[in-house]
Please model this.
Amino acid sequence: MKLIHLLRTMFRKDELNQQLTAELNFHLEKQIEQNLAAGMSHAEARYAALRRFGGVEQVKEECRDAWGVRLISALFQDIRFGFRMLAKNPGFTVVAVLTLALGIGANTAIFSVVNAALLRSLPYNEPGRLVYVWAAEKARGIPRSPASIPDLRDWSEQNRVFDGMTGWWSGSYNLAGGDEPRRVTGRVVSTNFFDVLGAHASVGRTFTGETGSSDNDHVIVLSHALWTEAFGGNRSILGRTIALDSQPHTVIGVMPAEFSSPEPDVQLWIPWPLDAQAKATRGERFLGVLARLKPGVSKQSAQADMTAIALRLSGQYEEDKGVTTYLVPAQEQITGNVRQALWILLAAVGLVLLIACANLANLLLARSAAREREFAVRTALGAERSRLIRQSLTESLLLSLLGGVVGMLLAAWGMGYLRVFAAHQIPRAQDIGIDFGVLGFTLGVTLLTGVLSGLIPALSSYHGKLADFLKEGTRGLAGGRRRRLRSVLVVSEVAFALMLLVGAGLLVESFRRLHAVKPGFNPDRVLTCAISLPESKYDNPRIVSFFDQLLERVRALPGVVAAGATMTLPLQNPNGGYWTGLNVEGRPVATRESIPVVSLSQVTTGYFGAIGIPILKGRLFSEQDNISQSSKVAIINATIARRYFAGIDPVGRRIRFGESDREPWITVVGVVGDAALQSLADPRFSQVYVPHGQGTGGGPAGNMELVLRTASDPLTLATAVRTQVHEIDKDQSVADLRTLDQVLDVSLAQPRMNTLLLGGFAALALVLAIVGLYGVMAYSVAQRTREIGIRMALGADGGVMLRMIVKQGMILALAGVAIGLAGALGLTRFMASLLYGVRPTDPRTFLAVSLMLLSVAALAAYIPARRATKIDPMVALREE
Model:
C-alpha cells in the first residue's frame, strides 16, 4: 500500500509540474506581447520576460546562446563584407597580397632551412644525449684533433658518465656486385656504432658482438640510398656477397631512408678489421668519437670527468702529454659551420616581413582615409567603435591569409632550389620542405602579420561625429595623426632596409676580397680526379708502379701540358689531410708540446708544374727521388722557411717527422710557394712535400688526386683519363672528375650562398621600402592637390613645389638612415665570423650604402613631386 501511495504522489507531482509549466509559459508569452507593444525588440522583450518569470539561470543560458550566435553571425558578416570590399578594389588587393606574399614566402623558405638544419631533432634515439669527443693540443696550436684507438679504449673503460662510446674513420672504396662498379664513401666503425646512435636497420640487422670479433669479419651495412641506386631496393640483398676493394663482404642490413650518419653522404658501414686494435698506436690520431651520456648526466659533468681522464693519460703516456679533451653536443657539431649564418638569414627575412607589414599598414591607412565618410556615417548611426576596429582587422587578416597562401606557394617553389643550392653547404639539406612545423610557423606569421599591419589603421579609423567630419571636409582627417603614422612607418621601412643593405654590403665586400685571394696555385685549365687503390690488391711497389704507368700514359694524351699526383689536393680536404710533427736539425726541442705540427703530403714528379705552385729556391723532385732506396728528400713551403729557417738558406738542411728520435733525417732540396690548404680564408699552413715513391710511415699512399694541366678545356679529357685507368686496371674506379676551377668554386660556396641570400633579401627590402616611400609621397601629393593648386594660383612656381615635396620625402629618408645606421652598428657585430678582410663597422660600406639608399629615396620622392608641378590650379580648385 505504501508503494502505491508513493507512486500516486509522484504522478500527482509530475502532473502538477506540467500544469505549472504550461501556466508559466502562458504568462511568459503574455508578458512578451506586452513588451513588444511597449516598443521593445523581440530579443529585448523576451529577455525582460525571462527576467520576470524564467529565473536568473535560464536568462544567463539564453544570453550565452544568443551571444554565441550573434558573435558567429557577426564574424561571418564581417568576412563576407571584407571579401566584398577587397573585390571592389582589385588593384589594392593584388598589391597588398603580393607584398605580404613576398615577405611571408621568404620567411617560410628560410625557416624551412633553419627547421631542417637546427630545430628538427637528429634522427636518433634521444639525440640530446649524444656528444662528440675531441682531443686538443693547444700548446701546439691544434684546437681540435681526432683520437687514437688506444685513447678511445681508455676513455671507454675509465669514464663514469657515458652509456657508450663509439669511433669511426672515413674511407672510399671500389664497390662491385651492383648494377655497375662505382666509387663509394663509407665509414669503418666500432661495432657499437649504431647502438650508441640508437639506430636500427630497416632491412636485416646492424653489427653485433665485440669490436674485432670474428662475427663481424667482412660484413657490411648499406645506406638506403645505395641499396636503391645500386641494387634496385631488392630485399634479397641480405646475405649476398659483394666486392669492396676486391674483398668479399656479406650484406647484413640496410639502414632506413630517414637515417643519416653524423657525417653527410655516407653510403655504407663496415666494422673495424680484426687486427685494428693490435696494430694501432697511441700517436696515430684519425678517429672520430661519439658518445651517449647517461640519463641525467649534464655536459658539464661529463666534461669534468673526461678532463680528469685526459690528465691521467697525459702523465702516463708520452704520446698524450699536453693532450686535453672537450665535448660538443652532436646537434651543435653537425650544424656548427652554418648555425650563425642561418640565424642571421632568419633575422634578415624577419626584417623583410616587418617592412612588408609597414607597407601594408600604409596601404590600409590610405584606404581607411578614403573610407572616412563611411566610418563617420556608421558611427553616427550607432555603430560601436569596437565593431569598426573588428571590421578593419578582419579585412587585414583576410589580406594576410591570402598573402600567406600565395607566400606558401612561393616558398614551396623556392625550397626545391634551396635543396639543390645548399645541398653541400647546409647539413640535412635533403630534409628542407613543408611539414607541420613549417605550416605552423607560416600560419603564426600570417596571423601576426595581419594583426600588426591592420591594428594601426584600425585604431586610427574615424570615431568622431558626423557633423565634425562634414565641417572639416572630406580630406580633413587625412592629415594630423594619420600622416604622422604613415611617416613613422616609412622611416621604419627605410631603417630596416638600411640594416639589411649594410649587412649585404659587408658580405659582398668580404666575398670580393676572398675571391681576390691568390690561392698559391694556378687553377686555369686543370683537370683533377680521385684514384684510390685497395690495399688488398696493391702493395707498396704496385702502388708506385700503377701511378708511374698512369702518369706516363696521361702525359702522352693530346693537349696535356703537365701531369702529376698528390695525396692532399688544395681546398679539397677540410681537415688538411695528414698532419705530423716536425723537428728541424739544430733547433732544440724541450718538450713534446714544443714540436710544431705541419701538413705532410706525398706528391709525384710533375705535380708542382701541373698545379702551378712556383718553385722559390732549390729544385723540384726528380725521377731519381721517387725511388724509395735513394736518400730521403723533401720540399718545404715558404711558411716553414720563414718560421724555422729565418735568415738562413733552408736548402740542404735536414728535418725529421714525428716525435721519435728513431725517425730518419730528411734533406730539404727546395722551397715552393704557399698554397691554400683548407680554405682561402685560412692563414697559410706549414706544408712539407715528399716524393710519392719514398712514402712516409706506412709507405706510398694508395689514395691520390691526379692533376692534369691542359692546353684547352680540361673536361674534354675526362673520358680519355678514365680509359687510361681502366686499361691498367679494369676494376679500378675514377671519382670526382672535375676542374680545379670547380674545386676552387666549391670552396667559396658557403660565403657565396650567404652573400646571395642576404643580398637578395636586402634588395627585396630596398624595393619594398622605396615603394613605401613613393606611396607616401604620391598619396601626400594627392591629398594636398587643393593646397598645391592654391599655392600655384598665388604665384608659387614649379621649382618651389618640387623642392618642398622632395624635401619632405628626404626628411623621412634621412631619419630612417640615421636610425638604420645606429641599428646596423649594433647588429653587424654578430656577423664578424662570416666576414673576411673587412670589419663589421667598415665605414666605407656604411657610407656607400647610405648614399645609395638616399639616392634611390630621392628618386622615389622626385617622381610624385614632379607630377605635382604639372597640376592645373583651376582643376585643383574645382575638385573641392
